[in-house]
TrEMBL record:
The name this protein goes by in its record: SnoaL-like protein
SnoaL-like domain mapped to chain residues: 7-134
Transmembrane segments: none
Pfam families, per the entry: SnoaL_4 (PF13577)
InterPro entries, per the entry: NTF2-like_dom_sf, SnoaL-like
Domain of life: Bacteria
Protein source organism: Dietzia cinnamea
Length: 144
């Protein structure tokens, strides 16, 4: 299968976008998420017990919820992409360990999720953005 430079560039841009999403979440860079999602994006974290809502409400929820963790890591892998002009769909794996903020250090609890993200992308004036993100849970371990 022969691929054009545009298709290769788009795929690389989408991989960078998924990485940017994970980096913003783990760095608590909520303003940076504005460069990841479209303003009208729909985001569902229901598979891990979170909300399904419009991006602005999700951003506010993340800013309120994430400080209960001392650390999170979102390892994104195996991104599959189907391009269609200025839109695309995708699916990627996420391994997500999280450490709850303990009252005492000896009480720290680490748990993790194995997830898939099902994604819809659109090309905006400023580049590719996520217009829909939905979690699908594969497994979890040591949930509080």
């Amino acid at each position: 299968m022969s691929r054009t430079l545009v298709e290769l560039s788009d795929r690389w841009d989408l991989q960078d976008l998924v990485t940017r999403y994970a980096t913003c979440i783990d760095a608590r860079d909520f303003e940076g998420l504005d460069r990841v999602f479209t303003p009208d994006a729909r985001v569902s974290y229901e598979a891990s017990g979170g909300p399904d809502d419009a991006y602005p409400a999700i951003r506010a929820w993340l800013a309120e919820m994430l400080p209960v963790f001392t650390a999170t890591q979102h390892l994104m892998a195996n991104l599959e992409v189907s391009l269609d002009g200025d839109s695309a769909t995708g699916r990627c794996m996420c391994f997500n360990p999280m450490a709850l903020r303990p009252v005492e250090e000896k009480d720290q609890q680490v748990f993790f999720y194995g997830l898939w993200y099902v994604l819809e992308f659109v090309r905006a004036d400023a580049g590719w953005r996520i217009s829909r993100l939905t979690q699908q849970q594969a497994y979890h371990h040591n949930l509080p």
